[in-house]
């Protein structure tokens, strides 16, 4: 029986339920698992691939895994399909491509909770490994929004107040419907919102489009880590919007 299983993106709920039933050890390959330089992947992937997929390859090449499930459907991206092909050639283990089009919603109470944003994000990404819905938290009134994907560098989330609501693909993650474009495109026009994507990610197009239509928005992308420039932009935006260092009341 397979035990150490890597996942990329959000495999279909049926597969996660199967892994839970097998009591498999699930390793999220999207997240940094090793203290290794990401440029070790340069011989296999171009630098213009997003840092998440480069992290996937770095993890897959250096972790002792017995199989990998990778979502290559509309809930992830076309680049994941190409990474799956690379992994199949490089690794001696099964690399199983899946397409998650699940439509049953499980809710997104973590996204609307008063947990610190870093804890929200960690709980949501951890929840992908379970076929059960997340714990139902009481919703707080939002004073800021974070729209987008989980950043590779979680430290950027420390800039936001606890009353930040999460939107975008991360909300789809908690809802277990990664291909739900309507949910992904939703944002609250009443609160200042940072639209985030990893550099070179296709979702930067949607982030830029939605930010242009939002009355109080900042569009930001980061590569491997969040540099001082990105941090300064976010902090200044939140300060000027009255979210931090002041008093903001949603309209």
Descriptive terms for the model:
single chain, four-stranded parallel sheet, 8 helices, 251 residues
What this model shows, in words?
The structure is a single chain. Helices cover 32% and strands 16% of the residues. Helix 2 packs parallel to helix 3 and helix 4 crosses helix 5. It is globular, with a radius of gyration of 18 Å. The chain has 8 helices and 8 strands; from the N terminus they run βαβαβαβαββααβαβα. Mean pLDDT is 94; it is low at 246-251. The chain has helices at residues 13-21, 51-62, 78-90, 117-127, 169-175, 181-185, 204-213, 228-240, and strands at 4-8, 25-28, 67-71, 95-98, 144-148, 164-167, 193-198, 217-222. Helix 3 links the parallel strand 3 (67-71) and strand 4. It has 251 residues and is α/β, with parallel strands linked by helices. The protein has a 4-stranded parallel β-sheet with strand order 2-1-3-4, with helices on one face. It has a 4-stranded parallel β-sheet with strand order 6-5-7-8, sandwiched between helices.
What topology emerges from the helices and strands here?
Blueprint (H helix, E strand, L loop, with lengths): L3 E5 L4 H9 L3 E4 L22 H12 L4 E5 L6 H13 L4 E4 L18 H11 L16 E5 L15 E4 L1 H7 L5 H5 L7 E6 L5 H10 L3 E6 L5 H13 L11
Parallel strand pairs: 1-2, 1-3, 3-4, 5-6, 5-7, 7-8
Q: What's the total count of β strands?
A: 8
Biggest β-sheet, characterized? 4 strands, parallel
Coarse structural class:
alpha/beta
Strand content: 15-25%
Helix content: 25-40%
Order of helices and strands: EHEHEHEHEEHHEHEH
Distance between the termini: 55 Å
Average residue pLDDT: 94
Parts with pLDDT < 50 across at least 5 consecutive residues: 246-251
């Amino acid at each position: 029986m397979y035990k150490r299983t890597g996942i990329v993106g959000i495999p279909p709920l049926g597969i996660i339920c199967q892994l839970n039933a097998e009591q498999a050890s699930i390793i999220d390959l999207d997240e940094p698992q090793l203290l290794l330089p990401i440029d070790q992947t340069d011989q296999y992937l171009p630098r213009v691939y997003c840092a998440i997929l480069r992290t996937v390859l770095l993890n897959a090449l250096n972790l002792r895994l017995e199989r990998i499930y990778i979502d290559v459907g509309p809930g992830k991206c076309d680049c994941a399909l190409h990474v799956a092909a690379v992994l199949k050639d490089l690794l001696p283990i099964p690399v199983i491509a899946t397409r998650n089009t699940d439509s049953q919603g499980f809710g997104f109470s973590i996204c609307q909770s008063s947990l610190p944003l870093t804890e929200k994000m960690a709980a949501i990404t951890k929840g992908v490994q379970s076929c059960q819905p997340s714990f139902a938290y009481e919703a707080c009134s939002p004073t800021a929004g974070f729209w987008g994907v989980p950043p590779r560098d979680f430290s950027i989330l420390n800039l936001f107040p606890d009353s930040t609501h999460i939107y975008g693909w991360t909300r789809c993650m908690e809802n277990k419907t990664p291909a739900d474009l309507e949910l992904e495109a939703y944002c609250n026009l009443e609160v200042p919102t940072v639209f985030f994507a990893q550099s070179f990610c296709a979702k930067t197009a949607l982030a830029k489009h939605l930010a242009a239509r939002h009355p109080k928005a900042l569009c930001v992308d980061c590569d491997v880590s969040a540099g001082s420039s990105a941090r300064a932009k976010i902090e200044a935006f939140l300060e000027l919007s009255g979210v931090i260092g002041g008093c903001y009341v949603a309209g």
